[in-house]
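Example 3.2
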Amino acid sequence: MTRRVISAFVALTLSASLTASSLAQSVVLKMKFAEGRTDYYEEIESDEQVIKGGPVGEQGMTVSSRRIRGLDRKVESAEKDKTVVAFRFGRMATVFEMPGNSKMSYDSDLAAQEPGGEMFAEILETIVGETVRVEIGADGRTANAAGMDKIVAKIDDKVGGNPFWSQMKPMLNDESFAIQMINNRAALLPEKEVKAGDTWSVKTREPMPSVGEIARDLRCGLKSVAKKGGRTIATLEFEGTVSNEKAAASQPGMQVKLEGGKTRGTFEFDVEGGDFVSGEDQSELKLVASMGGGEDNAMKVALKSRNQFHVLTPKERAEQKRANAEQKRDEPTSKPASAPSEDK
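Structure, written as tokens:
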């Protein structure tokens, strides 16, 4: 695997955070899939964009958003060389805020929706209930997905010229789904037995419309291995850089160049269960956006993002959904009504 030099401060920061206050044992961290296993996976993505230049002027503007994606997961088959997991969209939510107290939101879990979120509603409510199936190889890191084309076609037929859909559509494809749901996270696992304090390098790549290919050069480490609620939980930490590995081909419309960025995160992995159960990562990126790729009216964007995820049992998800339905407008909860049990 090609390795890129990580800034010295990144390595020092990560090394200092790795402690031996854990079980004195070596572990093999590998994805596992038990046929028939069901659970609920939910991720919450929050970001803030500070935009300056171009049409918005040097005074700038700040745009923030929060997106929730919840999926019911079921391992439909688990053979030696191929596993099939069905991901059924169970919850979709978006909150979008612009200057002047302009705000739009929609959450499929809520019984009472905020006025003004109709453009989000017609897109997201169409996704809920649809399924994407992912085939995973014996290494747990390669995946093919099928189902996003059907979802995209269904939304196309319904929403017409919805401007938010034109922005969302390029990211909704089978390749991106497989990378986000399986490959990016599984790639963090070491290809060797490790113990607390060990570190290793990881590089991931992901194509992004209007940007090109994004590369993440990471230094990962096993912070601890400890019993938690009857399970053996390995806590992983990572830190590194984000770069534009390959620029997008010039085309009409908005073009975005990633000038650089950094990322870090902490994930928990169930050693015996063979899956990530919770985590959080944060990124800071610098981008330049322009129409048609030209420098005229280019806008500089400072993007800060925070992504969290957790896994619930079907029972915990039912409790969460019931609590969400009883919430007042714009008060959706991203966590279960009661703390999730450690035993899945």
